[in-house]
Amino acid sequence: MRKSYDTWGSADQSKALVADAKKVPRGSVVIAVVKDDASRELTQEAKNLFIKMGSEEINNLGNKEGWGFVGVAGQKVFGEQRGAKVRASMTLGFSKEVKEKVRKPSKVKGGSRFEVHSASLHAGSFSKLMINNMPIQTCAKGADGCRGLNVVAADAFTHKVLLAKAYDTFENPAESEALLHDVKDFPEGTIFLVSVKDEAS
């Protein structure tokens, strides 16, 4: 993307900048420079785009002042200068995205392997509770769990599953009481696997 925004003449241009920035993928190199004046209608929301990348000068940008910025979207990696005449730069090596291979664990000799996986709403939204590589279903929606706290209780000695249930502590405060009721009688030493899907707080 290559575009100019007259943030001296119109606050709508700041809104356009913010809207366009949402389309920029994480890891993209962002280059920004001021010609003449950009400060008068530059909103704080627009400034925050650069602050999130590490800018230390955008909040101080003054009338008819120059500013140069090179940064990386989603990271605090940047070069920056503010003044009457500026030069900002940084050096980046070429890179490519590498998909990490996930190693599948094997059973532990003489025991069991317990795994807990959790992802919030904006990071995949799932809960996975596993014993010896086998997902334990906590609700009718499948192996990815349900919103809230997903809980598995296993016997301390045999590792047999005693409870597998999801509690939507985001939507319903009574779910906390239900959780307390369900676990209060388990003996000391019971193994608990607990994972959040989406939101539970």
What does this structure look like?
The mean pLDDT is 87. The protein is an alpha+beta fold and 201 residues long. Strand 5 and strand 6 form a beta hairpin. The longest helix has 11 residues. The protein has a six-stranded mixed sheet, covered by helices on one side. The protein has a three-stranded antiparallel sheet with strand order 1-2-3, with no helix packed on it. It contains three helices and nine strands; from the N terminus they run H-E-H-E-E-E-E-E-E-E-H-E. The chain is 14% helix and 27% strand. The chain folds into two domains: 73 residues, no CATH class; 85 residues, no CATH class.
Low-confidence stretches: none
- Strand order, main sheet: write it out: 6-5-4-9-7-8
Biggest sheet overview: 6 strands, mixed
Number of E-type strands: 9
Total DSSP helices: 3
| SSE series | HEHEEEEEEEHE
Helical fraction: 10-25%
How large, in whole angstroms, is the Cα Rg?
Answer: 26 Å
As a percent range, the share of strand residues is 25-35%
Q: Assign the structural class, choosing from mainly alpha, mainly beta, alpha/beta, alpha+beta, or little secondary structure.
A: alpha+beta
* Arithmetic mean pLDDT: 87
Q: Sum up the overall morphology in one term.
A: elongated
Distance between the termini: 39 Å
Number of domains: 2
